Amino acid sequence: MGTVRADLVRADHLTPAEVSEVLALTRAAGDSDGAYPLSEHVMLHLRHGGDVPAVHLLARDGDQLVGYAHVDTTDAVEGASAELCVHPLFRRRGLGRALVMAAIGAADEHDPAHRLRLWAHGDHPSANALALSLGFERARVLWQMRRSLFAPVPAPELPPGVVLRPFRPGADEAAWLDLNARAFADHPDQGRWRAADLRIRLSEGWFDPDGFLLAERPAEGKLLGFHWTKVHGAIRHDHGDGSHDHDPIGEVYVLGVDPAAHGLGLGTALTLAGLRHLRDVGLDQVMLYVDESNPTAIALYQKLGFARWSTDVCFRRPGGRNQVAGDGSLSP
Ligand SMILES: CC(C)(COP(=O)(O)OP(=O)(O)OC[C@H]1O[C@@H](n2cnc3c(N)ncnc32)[C@H](O)[C@@H]1OP(=O)(O)O)[C@@H](O)C(=O)NCCC(=O)NCCS
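Above: the input record for the complex with coenzyme A. Below: its predicted structure, written as C-alpha cells.
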C-alpha cells in the first residue's frame, strides 16, 4: 500500500468534538481487531478529563481522523507511556510509524533518559511488527484474568498455627514492607515499595483494611503472606455514543507469600479469603493482572476459576535513541 498524505497535530487538550472523533476511531479499530486499542484508564481520561496532563497526537487525512496516540508523561519512575491506533482502512501507509516517532519526540521532551513504553492491547502481530521495527523490545506481557463471584468460592484452609487478619494501619507497615520485599524479590516494580509508596495507597479513597488480609503465625509474630484486594466502583456516565462504563468489580490487587512459606497452600487460602471478602461486600466479579512470565501464579488463578480475559503487551524503548529505519514522516 502507498503512503497517505496526512497531517499530524499535537494537542495538550482535546475539544469535545475531538474526543468524539477519537472514540469513533477506537470503536472502528476495536470492531476490526477484536480488542480496543486504548486502556480503560485512558478512555476514562478522554471522556471525563481530569487533571492528568497528556500529549495527544492526531493524524488527519483531510477532515477524517485516521490515527491517534495518547502519550502519558507523568510517570517519573517508569518514564512515559503511549497507546495508539490507526484506522483499519488507513493501515500500512506509515501512519503508525509516524505516530510512534512523534510519541518518542514528546517523551524525550520530558525524559533525558529517552524512555518510552508502548502499550498494545490484544497482542496483535501488527503492533508487534511496528514496535520491533522501531527498535522497541517486547518487555512485558500482562494477562487480565477474571472470575465470576457467583461461582462457588470454597472456604480457605489454613496451615496449622496460621491465622488471617486485616492489615492494621499504623502498626503493620514495617513488617508488611519486609514481607513484600521478600515475596517480590524477583519483581522489582512491586518488591521495591518503600514506606511512602505504601502510605499513598493506604490513604486512597478505595482503601479498606478489611480487604487487605494478612496471614500470620501469631506464636512467632511473623507475617507469612497477604492478599490486598481492591474495589473498583461502578462508573456510569451517559456518553451518548452507545458506549458504556463498567459495573463495580473487585480486584486481586497484590497477592504475596514469603518464599520461606511457599508450598503450604497459603496462596490458595489467601486468594479464597479475599474472594469471599469481595463477594461479601456485594461484588459479582473479580479481575486481576498477572505477568505471562509467572506460570506459578497463572496456574493458581486458573485452579481457582479465573480465565484469561485480555492480554496487554508492553514494548520498551531500550535506553537511548532507537535505531529507526526511515524518518517516520507521513509522506515521502
Ligand atoms: C499497530 C498499528 C498502530 C500500525 O499502524 P500502521 O499505520 O498500519 O503502521 P505503519 O504503516 O506505520 O507500519 C510501520 C511498520 O510496522 C510493521 N507492520 C505494521 N503492521 C503490520 C502488519 N499487519 N504485518 C506486518 N508488519 C506490520 C511493518 O514493518 C511496517 O513497515 P512496512 O509497511 O514498511 O513494512 C495499527 O495496526 C493499529 O492501530 N493496531 C491496533 C492498535 C494497536 O495495536 N496499537 C499498539 C501499537 S504498538
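Notes for the reader.
Confidence is low (pLDDT under 50) at residues 238-243, 320-332.
The longest helix spans residues 16-33.
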